[in-house]
Design a protein that fits this description.
Blueprint (H helix, E strand, L loop, with lengths): L2 H7 L5 H6 L8 E5 L5 H8 L3 E6 L14 E5 L14 E7 L7 H7 E12 L1 H7 L13 H5 L5 E9 L5 E8 L16
Parallel strand pairs: 1-2, 1-4, 2-3, 4-5
Antiparallel strand pairs: 5-7, 6-7
């Protein structure tokens, strides 16, 4: 894979997030955690969602601050307490980031009926591309499924190599709500 294609893939919204964005509720805020350059924040905000973009360094998302439905917070969540209340978010997006202790907080902060969408690197990516180097930053085989909270409704899961030759694991799950569809649409019908 050409380095330019690899870099470009992290400037555009993830195809995984784009595929499942139709399941995010229009009611409530979506947390884009470790938002980086704001590729998912911008896409979701342009579609009318209220988005909270959070990263340890928010200089890359400063241009989004003036959007009416975007809030930006600078936080070092690996070294400070989880700041958000129970049932706070209608959705949570996490891509290219892994901090295992956050999984219980994701679940608590997800509102009933809320959607969790994640993708990040696996050990195979490190073996092929030497990135990420730190084992704390990549998933073992099947680990993302094991990190899924008990009681979560699994919507989708994939693990393997993408078209851009990045090795990742991806998951979408929902926190059960008071009212749920018998089956969720696998495609965007908007």
């Amino acid at each position: 894979m050409a380095k330019n294609a690899y870099v470009q893939s992290f400037r555009q919204p993830s195809p995984w997030v784009m595929r499942w964005r139709h399941l995010f509720s229009r009611h409530g805020q979506i947390l884009d955690l470790a938002c980086g350059g704001g590729r998912h924040t911008a896409m979701l905000a342009l579609e009318g969602h209220d988005v909270l973009a959070v990263d340890i360094n928010v200089t890359e998302v400063e241009s989004l601050v003036d959007m009416p439905n975007v809030t930006v917070e600078c936080r070092d969540l690996e070294n400070e307490a989880w700041p958000w209340a129970k049932d706070r978010f209608a959705g949570i997006v996490v891509t290219n980031y892994l901090h295992r202790p956050h999984f219980s907080f994701y679940w608590e902060s997800l509102a009933p009926g809320g959607l969790f969408v994640m993708e990040t690197f696996t050990r195979a990516n490190t073996m092929i591309w030497a990135h990420p180097k730190n084992p704390a930053h990549f998933l073992e085989e099947g680990e993302l499924l094991r990190l899924m909270p008990e009681g979560a409704r699994l919507i989708a899961y994939e693990e393997g190599m993408t078209a851009l030759e990045t090795c990742i694991a991806r998951i979408v799950f929902m926190k059960p709500g008071a009212v749920e569809a018998y089956a969720l649409p696998l495609e965007n019908y908007r």
